[in-house]
Design goal:
Blueprint: E1 2-6, E2 12-16, E3 84-90, E4 103-108, H1 114-122, E5 140-145, E6 149-153, H2 164-180, E7 184-192, H3 199-210, E8 215-220, H4 233-247, E9 254-256, H5 265-280
Parallel strand pairs: 4-6, 4-7, 7-8, 8-9
Antiparallel strand pairs: 1-2, 3-5, 5-6
Length: 281
């Protein structure tokens, strides 16, 4: 399915969004291609994320970011975070900053490690303080990176002890943000790799897909490779991908991360850079 991300200055970016197969029309035009490739170009080439400007025949092992299905293309550029500043917290989508800067929203369950990932990305512990009470933050928080793009911290979802009213408020204003934010380039949907696939995460992914919101699955806590019971993170990731493949005709981009070891940090920023640079043109 093709999504048109509306933007200020009348710029238009068409993205092919990985959408649940039940809602994909029979005909559609693609300008931002996410080909159904596999993780290795030497295999059946079914689940790789191919960015603009690169052809499938040009894909090699060296062009795939480690611990991901993301191919690096010509739009990848400066990925370092040189400065970051907190701009504002908004209780309503309509109160968010209004300008033409692209933004990337971070979304996930309340205990998925969202604040820790933000702190790891910007390397400033005071930017997104972690809370001992998951579900406490109920605001949309905008951080301006390098004075050129936004990293947006959205309220966590699915915390059982959060008040019912807070859950309803989250559902209302967060969905309003997704549906009406013209400068949203992509959602980084965080998935806890230390636990089996969760229905609430799959439901969230399906809702984003049905509403044509571009997503990247960011698997967190991938450093916890030793377990006493249950499956390892890599096995949980594999199970999650198997479920996604059942419902999506094109596999969304995904990447493994750890805020403890720094795994995937630079690769995720590089992925963001190529999406941002393509949006900026």
């Amino acid at each position: 399915m093709t999504t048109v991300l509306r933007s200020c200055s009348s710029r238009i970016l068409s993205l092919h969004v990985p959408t649940p197969s039940s809602s994909i029309p029979k005909t559609h035009t693609l300008s931002f291609r996410r080909h159904p490739f596999s993780h290795s170009p030497s295999a059946s080439l079914k689940t790789l994320f191919i960015p603009p400007g690169i052809q499938p025949d040009d894909v090699t092992d060296s062009t795939i970011l480690p611990g991901s299905n993301i191919v690096v293309g010509p739009y990848a550029g400066e990925a370092k975070i040189k400065e970051v500043e907190f701009v504002k917290s908004s209780a309503r989508a309509r109160d968010c900053p209004v300008d033409d800067r692209p933004e990337f929203a971070i979304l996930g369950r309340s205990n998925v490690g969202k604040s820790s990932l933000i702190n790891s990305l910007v390397r400033r512990k005071e930017i997104a303080l972690t809370s001992k009470k998951p579900g406490k933050t109920q605001l949309i928080n905008h951080f301006l990176v390098n004075k050129s793009w936004y990293l947006v911290d959205l309220p966590g979802y699915g915390f059982a002890k959060a008040p019912e009213a807070a859950k309803m408020d989250w559902s209302s204003f967060t969905k309003g943000y997704f549906l009406n934010r013209n400068t949203l380039v992509a959602v980084l949907l965080l998935i806890d790799a230390s636990v089996p696939p969760q229905k609430i995460d799959l439901d969230c992914a399906n809702w984003l897909g049905r509403n044509n919101i571009p997503i990247t699955f960011v698997f967190t806590k991938c450093d916890k490779m030793k377990v006493t019971k249950g499956k390892r993170p890599d096995e949980n990731i594999r199970d999650f991908q198997e479920i996604i493949r059942e419902n999506y005709k094109q596999h969304p981009p995904w990447i493994m991360t750890s805020s403890v070891t720094g795994l995937g940090r630079d690769e995720l920023l590089l992925h963001i850079s190529q999406l941002r640079n393509y949006w900026d043109q």
